[in-house]
Design brief:
This protein is of the alpha/beta class and 403 residues long. It has helices at 46-52, 62-79, 92-103, 117-129, 145-152, 176-184, 233-238, 248-255, 266-282, 284-304, 331-342, 368-384, 393-402; strands at 35-36, 84-89, 109-114, 131-136, 159-163, 165-166, 171-172, 188-192, 211-215, 226-231, 320-324, 344-345, 347-348, 357-361.
């Protein structure tokens, strides 16, 4: 069901779009006209904005119960399977905290695999609720499976925890062999898929994932502020939450009644329903194929400009591309130029990659026109800095790849 309301009015003042208190324009960002290519949150469809503008609702009334029912019925579109699935009001980090706190006890150990900034953050979350043992890999490279196998044989681990799509370096981790090692050693396999689904295929059954966390504001192209969690039957039986608000058992119990245990962010739930309807109309398979083709075309453009990817190209992500700067290009000035002169918004690096890379998101409802505009702006900024002799090669490469 689609909710229709009056369109959201555009502000009459431009001060909110980038002016300082003194009236001097500090940047030219205009959310109504920008080419928005962050690695998340991503641009949302006007239908979602309209749905969110619905007047206040009784969150315990039958109408909102019907909204939750529709959401619950469509969640398998995201996860690629049915099962125990919930929506929490909170960011992706809230979902990770709910997963870890609900499945790993304070006296238990979790093996944390990290090869990027968000893998490091997973270790910090585990530290709050259990005993983490961290296996550090090279950023942008797959894990050494022998090192993982060796660590798992040393002692008993309740869980193995890792990131599916490492947004910080534009890298997709293969899950299947790690999942098999976890299951062989009796450990739960817990996965951060915040920036993965539904832009990437869901983990195959052979990965034997027990818990999966997805951010609404990434590949689903819903508003930020909601997180989706999937649990296997084994994980559902193992739940012993250590938190109150993020108690997954309580959320599952409420969802069976088309309800939530606590007051939900009603406008965000309405936006999520619309995002799921859009995904249903496109189909997850077509969205994954579109994002893959766009990623391949963007990677062709990167090569045509003489730039290099940060990660191993064999594992480059289909939802976000991390690009190394040429020598002598300052990150802040470069991204500032994209924003101020072209109204193009991209992400910078994180952690130890900060200042070394910029990242272009190509997930959700991103269109070729968005990415072509972004590439053209990158070309002009590089050309202005003497790092690119001629203009147009990146755009031509993208178009040639897309056919």
């Amino acid at each position: 069901m689609t909710s229709v309301t009056a369109p959201v009015a555009k502000p009459t003042s431009t001060k909110s779009l980038g002016e300082t208190a003194t009236g001097t324009a500090s940047d030219r960002f205009d959310p109504y006209t920008s080419t928005f290519l962050l690695a998340g949150p991503v641009r949302v469809h006007p239908r979602i904005l309209q749905a969110m503008a619905t007047p206040a609702l009784n969150h315990r009334g039958e109408y909102f119960h019907s909204v939750i029912r529709e959401i619950r019925e469509m969640l398998p579109l995201v996860f690629g399977t049915s099962g125990h699935q919930v929506v929490l009001t909170g960011s992706g980090t809230a979902g990770l905290e709910a997963m870890v706190s609900g499945l790993v006890g304070r006296e238990e150990k979790a093996l944390v695999l990290t090869n990027g900034h968000f893998g490091d953050r997973l270790g910090q979350i585990v530290q709050r609720f259990a005993h983490p043992v961290v296996v550090k890999g090279t950023w942008g490279e797959p894990f050494d499976l022998d090192a993982v196998r060796s660590e798992l044989t040393k002692e008993r681990y309740k869980a193995v925890v890792m990131v599916y799509n490492e947004t910080s370096v534009g890298f997709t981790n293969p899950l299947e062999k790690v999942g098999a090692l976890a299951r062989e050693n009796g450990a739960l396999f817990l996965v951060d898929a915040i920036s993965a689904l539904p832009g990437l295929p869901p983990p195959s059954p052979s990965a034997q994932v027990d818990a999966l966390v997805v951010g609404a504001q990434k590949g689903l192209a819903a508003p930020p502020g909601l997180v989706l969690v999937h649990l296997s039957e084994r994980a559902r039986e193992a739940l012993h939450p250590q938190t109150f608000y993020n108690d997954l058992a309580e959320h599952l119990k409420s969802l069976e009644k088309d309800d939530t245990p606590f007051t939900p962010a009603v406008p965000l739930f309405l936006g999520l329903r619309e995002a799921l309807l859009l995904l249903k109309e496109e189909t997850p398979a077509r969205r994954q194929e579109r994002n893959h083709q766009q990623a391949e075309a963007l990677r062709a453009a990167v090569g045509a400009l003489g730039l290099r990817l940060y990660p191993n190209p064999a594992y480059a992500s289909d939802t976000v591309t991390a690009i190394r700067y040429p020598d002598g290009v300052d990150d802040s000035a470069f991204r500032g130029g994209l924003r101020e002169r072209h109204n193009v918004i991209v992400s910078g690096g994180q952690g130890k990659a900060k200042g070394e890379i910029f990242r272009i998101g190509h997930m959700g409802i991103v269109q070729d026109a968005d990415l072509l505009g972004g590439i053209a702006a990158v070309e002009r900024e590089l050309h202005q800095r003497g790092k690119l002799p001629t203009l147009g090669e990146g755009v031509r490469a993208y178009l040639a790849q897309r056919g």
